[in-house]
Amino acid sequence: MRELPQGLTPPRNGDAIETDHPLSRRAVLSGAGALALLSAAGCSTSGGGMPVLELDNTVTGSVPPMRPAISVDKNITSPDLMYAALTDNGFNVPEVPYLKVKPEFRRQIVVDTTGEAPGTIVVHLKERMLYLVQPGGDAIRYGVGIGKDGFRWSGRANIQYGREWPTWTPPPEMIQRKPELVKWQGGQPGGLTNPLGARALYIYQDGKDTGYRIHGSPEWWSIGQAMSSGCVRLINQDIIDLYSRVSKKNPVVVM
Q: Which Gene Ontology BP annotations are present (predicted)?
């Protein structure tokens, strides 16, 4: 207990005690006023005298539930890494000057808006985008080049199988249009100048080959354009990434 200052007598019962930190009458009145305001505002107090706010913790239908955080994938990183030069199966794939590719056509993770099951490949011809649907509400999106008018295919099908550095065989009708391709009527071996690029995924519908492919291309500048003979083409680095994620019989939707 503190000693009283000299010259002061102990208080009698009922007298007020003065301390070094007096609590002014104004402060007491202010505190009482605050409690009165809380009571007027619809608050209640707990048994210990502390105010308790009566908050409504319900979630209304106008507030959408929070979606899971977007996934993290070591292969979806900065463009200078994703489109760097690489060696694949003995072929030296050149670097892609990604600054010349529109940002929306570069590989990235986005919120899935397709409504399709995970593992489905969705090609939006109008958008020039390919989506690989992921679990948890995400999709990996790649920019693509598509077929010219009159050469496009759409529908639901499956990936029957895939090939690394595939052989390309021009169909007879293409050779008729471009006689110089006759030299490849027996098939052009896989390589850096092969139109199918580093990988090809073969689209079958009801067990039959549609003749359409999802494949790579050395012509990175064609991404976002409609200039192929109907197939869906990706940058070689992107088709290598997509191919690594696809298993047999993946559903394909082209719309």
A: cell wall organization; peptidoglycan-protein cross-linking; regulation of cell shape
What burial letters (b/e) apply to 20-50, b meaning 16+ CB within 10 Å?
eeeeeeeeeeeeeeeeeeeeeeeeeeeeeee
Q: According to the model, what pLDDT value does residue 150 have? A: 53
* Secondary structure class of 5 (helix, strand, coil): coil
Given the residues 21, 43, 124, 215, select the one marked as catalytic.
215
pLDDT at 55: 42
Give catalytic status of residue 124 as yes or no.
no
Q: Two tokens at 118?
A: 């995970």
Q: Is 231 a catalytic residue?
A: yes
Which whole number is the average pLDDT over 19-41? 43
CATH of 79-254 among 3.90.180.10, 3.40.190.100, 2.40.440.10, 1.10.3720.10: 2.40.440.10
Let me know: does 131 contact 254? Beta carbons within 8 Å. no
Residue from 21, 43, 124, 231 carrying the catalytic annotation: 231
